[in-house]
Specification:
Largest sheet: 6 strands, parallel
Number of helices: 10
Oligomer: single chain
Shape: elongated
């Protein structure tokens, strides 16, 4: 019995490679591809795939929102998260939003195929392919909300630094800054840079430095 699949990732080359890999399995059929969360929801409503492979850092909206909207229009679709990272707070959030598996992109071909077949056949099973450290932090609730780097970047955002300025200050690429901010938005449920800063300050996750008071005259 064929398993129909939809691929959601903003990197076309990765999607095409994944499609080629899955096409080697006689029971796996890729119905379509999407590059944003909004496109994914539209395609899910149209095709009702058995499984959606969803990039955790998909642009356009937070992955948790994409999961919720997908399940609203295609409730029988199983969602597998593919991510470059296994930050415990993100793993917990996306599994809580309705994903049935969370795999890092270093997962082997055999493990990916096995996960596709497993989640399709057993809707109550949750599959994980993450580091042991992350698994332990997910299991015992010790996962921090923001990593040290994410808090550092958000503190600079609060001081009105642009992404390029933050990158130069921390000696990282602008793309890395954007990736960290996407993770921050997901973790905090923020919809903008200002919203993320306000929520982080309210939760005591960052401290915004107040400008120095002007020296008294005379």
């Amino acid at each position: 019995m064929s398993i129909t699949i939809m691929l959601v990732d903003d990197h076309a080359l990765f999607r095409h490679g994944l499609r080629e890999l899955l096409s080697m399995e006689p029971d796996l059929v890729v119905l379509g591809e999407a590059g944003t969360g909004a496109e994914a929801v539209v395609m899910a409503a149209r095709h009702r795939p058995d499984v959606m492979l969803l990039d955790a850092g998909i642009p356009g909206e937070q992955a948790a929102a994409t999961i919720a909207r997908t399940l609203a229009v295609a409730p029988d679709t199983r969602i597998i998260i593919l991510s470059m990272f296994d930050e415990p707070a993100v793993v917990k959030e996306l599994l809580g939003a309705g994903a049935q598996a969370y795999l890092v992109k270093t997962v082997t071909r055999d493990d990916l195929v096995a996960t596709l077949r497993s989640v399709r056949g057993d809707g109550d099973r949750v599959m994980l392919s993450i580091s042991r450290e992350s698994f332990e932090r997910v299991s015992d609730g010790r996962s921090s909300i923001l990593s040290a780097r994410e808090a550092e970047i958000l503190a600079l955002v609060a001081q009105a630094y642009s992404n390029s300025q933050i990158g130069r200050r921390l000696d990282i690429t602008e793309g890395t800054v954007k990736r960290h901010l996407r993770n921050v938005f997901t973790k905090l449920g923020a919809v903008s840079r200002l919203d993320a800063v306000n929520k982080a300050v309210a939760s005591n996750l960052i401290t915004v430095e107040k400008p120095a008071a002007p020296a008294p005259r005379g």
